[in-house]
Amino acid sequence: MKKIVYLILPATILVFPFSTWSKTSAPAPIIWQSITFGQSTDLNFGSTILPEKVGTNETLVNATLVTPGPLAPSFTLESRGGKLANSHEGVTFYYTELPINTNFILSANITLEQLGPETGANPNRQEGAGIMVRDILGKAREVPQPIGYEEFPAASNMVMNFIRSHSRDADGKININATYRQGIQDPWGTAGNRIYRQDYVEGIDFSSKSPFHLTLEKTDQQFIFGYQQGEIKQQITLEKLTPGILAQQNPEKQYLGFFASRNAKISVQDATLQITQGTDLSPTSFSTPSIPVLLTQASASITTGDSYTFQARANYDGYFSLWQDNQIAVQNVTVKAGDFFSHALSITTPSAEVKVRFVPDLPQGEKEAQENTITVRKSSVLLEDPMNLHVAVDGTSQGNGTLEKPLDLTSAIQWLPPGGTLFLQAGDYPALTLPSQSSGTAQAYKTLKGKNAKVRFIGEVLHQASFWHVENIEVAGASLIVQGSHNEFRNITTHSAPDTGFQITSPEGVGRALWASHNIVKDSISFNNMDKSQINADGFAAKMRVGDGNTFIRCISHHNIDDGWDLFNKVEDGPNGVVTILDSIAFMNGQTLQVQSKSASIGNGFKLGGEGIPVAHIVKNSLAFHNNMDGFTDNFNPGALLLENNLAIDNRRFNYLFRKSPYEKASLQGTFINNQSFRFYQPSPYPDVVNGNQMINNDFLLSTTAKNAKVRYLNELQKLSKVDYSQTIPGLKEAKAVQALLTD
């Protein structure tokens, strides 16, 4: 039996087998130090942070910055910037480096001093503080911060026992959470990685600031998470979590310590670390989970005539077969993932049973085949003209679709055939879902038209269908969300929503082939949108799982609490498709018509990506004017962006900000042609920062002189941008005047 020697250091207990060291091979001293790294830890990051605390990310011992040395038994950790995202984090981390095969118990008494914004905004559950172990560190934040530089995402395979907000409301309560992330192969994050969270103690009232005891233990087999406050004690392990999770990016080292992130501050007392030598570790195997096979119907179950087109699509390549009343109609038609399978049928009886079968082109395709059977019925309602249906707020299912006897909207959507048009009469309509089963076809789009721009929806409009033209509607106090494909929206106004006004997005788990794609938005306006936390609501967004071909043309976004356009991309989803923005305007974002900005870190004009994923978005002939943050920004998208013939004027921070990525070579970054930048009434200490592959005829630097034509043009633009708050919808008249000026 090996003898065990306990080596006692301040606040640290080391346990080693006697045979592993001698007089000449004593274990190296354990050094603790502090580092700040990751997105939103910049010295000037100020979103939902009090101005006097911007840049505060530090570990203090006796009110002095900690220096490398033994573990301090008592210290304070505060991180105003940073974030705890699904695929990466920005933190202040007081840590030590240990061999990967070292087991440990790290514990302390912790008092939570602050969690969440102090600006009046609600928490967004990206805040937290506690104990963490991870496989790599991020690059330490730049101090001093170079002009135009902001910290990029830092991702790791990691385990945390930590404090997080109880909800997205400032209710004075917290949870204790066990979290781990795996599947990270690159330091900026990896698509398809997995994060698992479990709140194992909930609803703790921290207003009294009573201390509690947190513990994170690693053994050869598992991690153990512990919490204790007085007589209340809780300890858990997480199924499927093994220490090999830490051997993925760095098979030699692990980094263990205490952390804080985004408006979090803790005081730590009686910190202790016990370590023992464990067994060698191999990386835990991880593969991105495959998306389940999904078959989606895209045609109605009612027909108004004998002609009926069945339509469906799936998220894998494969083969479609179709039966009508048990008779084969078509068999084994090859269809690409995301493309529409369409087949014309004749329904000559009152109803017909239609069955579709999809076999994915996979090794086990037959086992994963999907079937669906529907009964297609002929409508019993006598419609005077099924191709042209009139709808009114007080319409009924007993109407015949004429102007004199209008239908209700739900019935009209159900009965409208491909190629038909719904004419909505003036009035306020409730929330609407346009399901995928109500889709038109590529050859025969369906149309919804509002009358005289006086059709208003006062609830959320969820557009899941494809092949529609939608025109002349207003969505007030709610969002318009597009999850379908091949739609065209024209003359749409969205405003005063509790989140983004007009958003193209897709549900999780459907697979890239079914992401919302090839939608066109024209001549539309979105303004005055604000969420509770006052940091997320944009005017327009094409983010969070969008496919190729989404385009905005001649649109205006103004007075939204966050960005004019947001093309944010999540690492775990993989890259979005290319979005194109043409002839559009973003002005005075970062505030609403009623609420001034509480932060200089929200309110971009055009935010073109996110989280270090390269996507080659396109912006042409567009204006970013007087936004609260940046005019045009990559938002950490290092891709081959194309910006051409754009104008940025008097944005509060940068007019143009396109950073040099630490992950991609500069030659892979953007192309910039004929872009201009001016400052006349809004000073800024920052010149434009643009890193790209091609630079052709741009004027990016601050200019103190301009040609007469430009001066006249800009003076007129400034005059037109002064909002008349006495208007029913303040800012709308001015935005349209600005648009007219630019198109003259």
Report on the structure:
The chain has 3 helices and 56 strands. It has 744 residues and is mainly beta. The chain folds into 3 domains: 246 residues, Jelly Rolls (Sandwich); 84 residues, Immunoglobulin-like (Sandwich); 265 residues, Pectate Lyase C-like (3 Solenoid), CATH 2.160.20.10. The strands form 6 sheets. It has a 20-stranded parallel β-sheet that branches. Strands 1, 2, 4, 5, 6, 9, 14, 15, 16 and 18 form a 10-stranded mixed β-sheet that branches. It has a 10-stranded parallel β-sheet with strand order 30-33-35-37-40-43-46-49-52-55, with no helix packed on it. Strand 27, helix 1 and strand 28 form a beta-alpha-beta unit. The chain is globular and about 85 Å long. The N and C termini lie far apart (90 Å).
